[in-house]
Amino acid sequence: MKLISEMINKFKQAFSAMQNAKNILLVTHNKPDGDALSSICAFIELFSVMEKKFTAYCYDEPYPQFGFLPHLEKIVSNREKINFSEFDCIISLDCGAPSRTMLKEELINRNKNQIAIEFDHHPKIEDYADIEIRIPESSSTAEIIYKFLTVNKIRFNKNFANCILTGILTDTGNFLYPSTTNETIEIASKMLVYGARFPVITENTYKNKTLSGMKIWGKAINNLKINKKYNFAYSVLTLNDLSESGATVDELEGISGLLSNLHGVNALMLLREEFPGKIKGSLRTANNNIDVSKLAIRLGGGGHPRASGFAFDGHIEETNNGWRII
Ligand SMILES: [Mn+2]
User: Fold this and answer.
1) Half-sphere exposure of 256 toward its Cβ, with a 13 Å CA cutoff?
2) Which of 145, 197, 296, 321 has the fewest CB atoms within 10 Å, counting from its CB?
3) What is the value of pTM for the model shown?
């Protein structure tokens, strides 16, 4: 396991802060994906083993497809149930930006005796944590948690294993995205030894498409075009595409990953109007010499060099010579 000593120290510091804490708040990002939920469930497992008092919070209710994760039912989504000042330790997981906790104000204005610990693999956006554990080269936050548990000599069990493998599989598109390293696969393999159930995870996270979901994926493939000058592929999903397919916004997850299988292009962009007047964009590349996050940042977003996103106000309209954004 490659880790610099600074990171090992942070892992130890974070663990001792957790040991000293009286009441811990765990929080992951809104619209939680597999990595977000796996990360929070892994910590619920840890604090159950350690017999710590904690509350796990996520602004949006977890999607039922993740019901196979241990402790998922313990995640609270009712903001009223959270009295922020009660906690002496706040742990944010996989959030990218503090705003995605949906508790940004509270986090930024926390009391001096409230320690904030951040675990994340997204590039840094804002400084707010007392202990910032950020490894942008990691495939997933789950992979970072594996290292945290290992450094602190926590005994792995089936629950940890299922959480960590789920985070890795969902954030790497089952090992297909370029964020997958030999270490990622090594960790995944260890998780199988500890009892993670690979088929259960893929059945629930990957092989779970509905007819409307398949149709919207088909639309995105159908709308795919290539700009020959820049060898740049792009596709759009209009409001109309979404309503015709009957797909929900959640079912759009993973489309850009699918489109990025297109061979031989420099990069790919997917624009989708999920709500009237609100456009979301994702950028992907398989080319190590291209950093799509630079373009995403120019467009007000951010992300990783190989996978980033942005959002802006506008409306996608189909014209005789392609699409237009107004
Ligand atoms: Mn993640």
Assistant:
1) 22
2) 321
3) 0.84
Q: Which residue ranges does the chain devote to CATH 3.90.1640.10?
A: 5-205
CA of 141 to the centre of ligand 1 (A): 5
Q: 275: Cβ–Cβ under 8 A, 6 or more apart, which residues?
A: none
Q: For the purposes of burial, counting CB atoms within 10 Å of the CB of 135, is it exposed (0-12), middle (13-18) or buried (19 or more)?
A: middle
Give me the CATH code for the 211-325 domain, please. 3.10.310.30
Centre of ligand 1 to C-alpha 19, Å, is 25
Q: Which residues surround ligand 1, an ion (CB under 5 A)?
A: 35, 94, 140-141, 171
Looking at residue 208, its pLDDT comes to 77
Distances (CA, A) of 130 to 15, 82, 115, 144: 13, 21, 6, 17
Distance CA 58, CA 94 (A): 12
Q: If you measure from the C-alpha of residue 228 to the centroid of ligand 1, how many angstroms do you get, rounded to a whole number?
A: 33
Split at pLDDT 50, 70, 90, the class of 1 is: low
Q: State in Å: Cα 27 to ligand 1 middle.
A: 13
- Given CATH 3.30.470.30, say whether it is the number of domain 5-205: no
- For residue 282, report the distance from its CA to the centre of ligand 1, in Å: 15
Centroid of ligand 1 to alpha carbon of 178 (angstroms) = 14
Q: Which of 29, 25, 19, 46 is nearest to 90 (CA)?
A: 25
Sign of torsion over alpha carbons 171, 133, 144, 46 = negative
Please give the Cα distance from 144 to 164 (Å, whole number).
9
CA distance 94 to 304: 13
Chain region(s) in the chain for CATH 3.10.310.30? 211-325
Ligand 1 centroid to 94 CA: how many Å?
A: 5
| Ligand 1 centroid, distance to 121 Cα (angstroms) | 7
